[in-house]
From TrEMBL:
Name the UniProt record assigns to this protein: Cytidylate kinase
Recorded family membership: Belongs to the cytidylate kinase family. Type 1 subfamily.
Residues reported in the UniProt entry to bind ATP: 18-26
Cross-referenced Gene3D superfamilies: P-loop containing nucleotide triphosphate hydrolases
Gene name, Swiss-Prot/TrEMBL: cmk
SUPFAM superfamilies on file: P-loop containing nucleoside triphosphate hydrolases (SSF52540)
ATP-binding among keywords: yes
Domain annotation Cytidylate kinase: ranges: 14-225
Amino acid sequence: MENGAAPTAKPVIVAIDGPSGTGKSSTSKAVAAQLGLSYLDTGAQYRAITWWMVHNGIDLADPTAVAAVAGKPEIVSGTDPSAPTITVDGVDVAAPIRTQEVTSRVSAVSAVPEVRTRITELQRSLAAGAERGIVVEGRDIGTTVLPDADLKVFLTASPEARAARRSGELKGADLHATREALVKRDAADSSRKTSPLAKADDAVEVDTTELTLAQVIECVVTLVEEKRAAK
Ligand code: DC
């Protein structure tokens, strides 16, 4: 038996939403690894479809053109939290989906309803197939993708803290420019018509501004264990 979970434990579905720079990915991966659950980074899926559109010269300013090809790329996510993977038509895109070119375009692509329908289907089927359960991180997981999740967490942090974390990740990128880009992307993600970034009514909000990563992980692990015990 791995990680101490009983073999008969019912799968547990955890939704972790919030804007960028709140520690969502690091927290979600660590919680999944610690509890023996699968892990899905839904932002990586939106980045992957954006990468494919850029790579294939699709006009991203034209939502009709984006919608017309939304079903074309085959996006496959590996859900092991210790080594998550993402491929598009068999190509490993883990690195290219993190480029500035993709980051600056992903909000436009992910606002197209046909793109969201396609990616949401993938997410639901991965969650349904996770034998021991899954931690799914994104923007609309608790509200739209998995509204019946056992636990919903909404991570927040001040824009200053989020920009500081992101600039650290980007190895000393300009703090002011990072903050501006982050606030702009959040505004686009929160104001789009189809399933915007939003906290579900039944989500537990955790403000991570003054917390260390270890503290956030511990907090979420405790919340999951409480839900598991109550199942
Ligand atoms: O988490 P991230 O920064 O890698 O996400 C990239 C973009 O993908 C984000 O700006 C909005 C979009 N996204 C989304 O629309 N819905 C999700 N569930 C996850 C990400």
